Amino acid sequence: MQFDIADIGLAEAGRRRISWADAEMPVLASIRERFAREKPLAGQVVGACMHITTETANLLRTLKAGGAEVYACASNPLSTQDDVAAALVKYDQIPVFAIRGEGDATYYSHIDAVLDAHPTITMDDGCDLVTRLHTQRPEQLVGMVGGTEETTTGVIRLRAMEASGALKYPIVAVNDADTKHMFDNRYGTGQSTLDGIIRATNVLIAGKVFVVAGYGYCGKGVASRARGMGAQVVVTEVDPIRALEAVMDGFRVEPMDEAAREGDIFVTVTGDRDVIAEQHFKIMKDGAILANSGHFDIEIDLKALAAMAGGERRREVKPLVEEFLVPQEGGDARIRVVAEGRLVNLGAAEGHPAAVMDMSFANQALAGEWVAKGAAELGAKVYDVPREIDDEVALLKLRSMGITIDQLTDAQREYLTSWQHGT
Ligand code: ADE
Question: What is the pLDDT of residues 145-159, one digit of tens each?
């Protein structure tokens, strides 16, 4: 079996952490039990480009239990948990190609190694695997059954591919399931982003001016958790409705040109580039801390920051914290970037907690089954997760939490489908 990981000797530690996460993932575990009986993925080769974490390990184990041959690579150079990669190779015989801190060339060679296995189903987080397949291996597209996509950024890229006619096989937008983005993006990103910043810097959040760029579900989560820890939260937005929502949720809303002067800590979660750029570095406070929790490391213009500081005027001040000396009118300002401007929650912490990834990855597993079963009827489009799957994931999660809910009576159901009833 071929693989490329940091150290197989870490496998036992990885196995213990995977099993710790599994205990928080009862929905996925129940799907795994059914998959082991029914083998809905028999004959499929799954190529997964995802963050190699304990939670992803439990997803990959589920797909394998369902009968698939599974290959995995990282969806970000800094998010791989090397012990998990080792455990997957040693105990689950899943070929993994992922090393924490890998450079761009290795990152893409690992994606290529997964494509060499000729996957029939892709599971992507950010759309790099799908893009590589379409641009570098068009001859492999004929064998494709379908795919799934985990994140907002990836779904945006896929919809652009679909609109331009470039997409060649069906992909399910797992991110857009309610039981994914309303929970993972909000509570997962909210908690793990603060976790990453705190683990890397150990700064006190209380009393700080905490600027959140972007008020989608991720931004909502980060803003609410920062406020919960006593920060004064400022939100920046380009979307008037989201900006209004932030105002009515009780946050101060300002353009970045103003917020840049006031912030002690900045988090970007927009999915777009250059949200914090040269004009902002020029006016930031000495000691400002910058982190990104969007999928790609383009939200903070790090090239501009490095150019302003110059070669000698940047240094690592702590593991995962780099300080840049930026010339300003009154002297140099020390601007600190956490986790190289990459996903701070996975770069400096362990990503979202397992209990929330339970729902995201239950959707992944069930969406994988859905594309495998429906392959003959599906076109080269981006599909939503079917409502029944979303509802099933929510019900299973509630059940695992010991929570039951009311059922509609016949009269209530009839009322909801009629139009004659009035005042
Ligand atoms: N994305 C965010 N958190 C994650 C985690 N813990 N595992 C996999 N993907 C993630």
Answer: 999 999 999 999 999
CA 184 – CA 218 distance, rounded (Å): 8
For the chain, 423 residues long, the average pLDDT of each consecutive 10-residue run is 98 98 98 98 98 98 98 97 98 98 98 98 98 98 96 96 98 98 98 98 98 98 98 98 98 98 98 97 98 97 95 93 95 97 97 98 98 92 97 97 97 95 89
DSSP assignment of 358-421, as one string? HHHHHHHHHHHHHHHHHTTT--SSEEEPPHHHHHHHHHHHHHHTT-------HHHHHHHT-S--
Closest alpha carbon to 82 in 58, 104, 98, 103? 98
Closest Cα to atom 9 of ligand 1 = 51
- Ligand 1 lining (C-beta closer than 6 Å): 51, 53, 55-56, 188, 346, 351-352, 357
Mutate to test the pocket of ligand 1, among 17, 51, 88 (most ligand atoms within 8 A of CB): 51
Mutate to test the pocket of ligand 1, among 151, 152, 346, 350 (most ligand atoms within 8 A of CB): 346
Question: Among the CATH numbers 3.40.50.620, 3.40.50.150, 3.90.180.10, 3.40.50.1480, which is that of 8-180+352-400?
Answer: 3.40.50.1480
Task: Write down the CATH superfamily of domain 186-347.
Answer: NAD(P)-binding Rossmann-like Domain (3.40.50.720)
Q: Quick check: 31 and 365 in contact, CB under 8 A? A: yes
Report which ligand 1 atom has the smallest distance to the Cα of 53: 7
Per-residue pLDDT tens for 8-61?
999 999 999 999 999 999 999 999 999 999 999 999 999 999 999 999 999 999
Cα 60 to middle of ligand 1, angstroms: 13
User: What is the C-alpha separation between 259 and 283, in angstroms, rounded?
Assistant: 10
